UniProtKB/TrEMBL annotation:
This is GRAM domain-containing protein. Gene3D superfamilies: Pleckstrin-homology domain (PH domain)/Phosphotyrosine-binding domain (PTB). InterPro entries: GEM-like, GRAM, PH-like_dom_sf. Belongs to the GEM family. Residues 88-166 form the GRAM domain. It comes from the Eukaryota. It comes from Vitis rotundifolia (Muscadine grape).
Length: 210
């Protein structure tokens, strides 16, 4: 990442760059029978239930395997319970600035050239931040393997625009692209509720400009 981003946008030092996801790299196998049964049970509630189940299906589909996805959810869930809620998780990982308020936390994936990374996307009155659900192995400067969480933090003032896009072949597969003032792109996908996350970010950006 460019030096001029220091102190503004930070990302965990790991050898992968954020790229626009391609449909060819995501032909991952999961079982959908349980999701289908849930969808059938909730059909009576109409379109909201259908959208919710599509969100679950998409979130599970992107994960490397169903078992790995579940392990990640359990790990993050245990951490949230241990600390007493997502607000405390956000504070522990990123700290809280003066007057900063957490608006929303959403489960999603960050797209990288190493593959999608599952985690939580935090939207606050000051920034957008992402932390992976599970720690990732990387090589330290001395060659040793260490485990760290992949983190991204982008101040709202450094966001140039936020774009919506979808896979042409799979319209339900939606992406959120965040472009910084230095033209770095961060792609998020696999939201359980994409529209709520997108609208929350739009509102946060609008209020930060007042």
């Amino acid at each position: 990442m460019k030096n001029q981003l220091a102190g503004h946008v930070f990302r965990t030092p790991i050898s992968c760059q954020c790229d626009k996801p391609s449909s060819s790299s995501q032909s991952l196998v999961v079982t959908h029978d349980k999701v289908d049964r849930m969808k059938n049970m909730m059909n009576k509630h109409g379109q909201k239930a259908d959208n919710f189940v599509h969100g679950i299906r998409e979130h599970l589909r992107i994960g490397s395997t169903l078992s790995e996805t579940v392990k990640g959810k359990l790990s993050m869930g245990a951490r949230i319970l241990q600390l007493g809620g997502v607000k405390r998780v956000f504070k522990q990982i990123f700290g809280i600035g003066e007057g900063e308020k957490l608006l929303k936390a959403s489960q999603c994936y960050l797209s990288t050239t190493a593959g999608p990374i599952a985690g939580l996307l935090f939207i606050s009155t000051h920034r957008v931040a992402f932390c992976s659900e599970r720690s990732i192995k990387i090589s330290s400067p001395n060659g040793e393997l260490v485990r760290i969480h992949y983190k991204v933090s982008i101040p709202l003032r450094n966001i140039k625009r936020v774009n919506q896009s979808a896979n042409v072949k799979m319209p339900s597969q939606k992406y959120m692209e965040i472009v910084t003032i230095d033209d770095f792109e961060f792609w998020y996908m696999g939201f359980l509720n994409y529209q709520k996350a997108f609208h929350c970010l739009q509102q946060a950006l609008s209020q930060s400009q007042v």
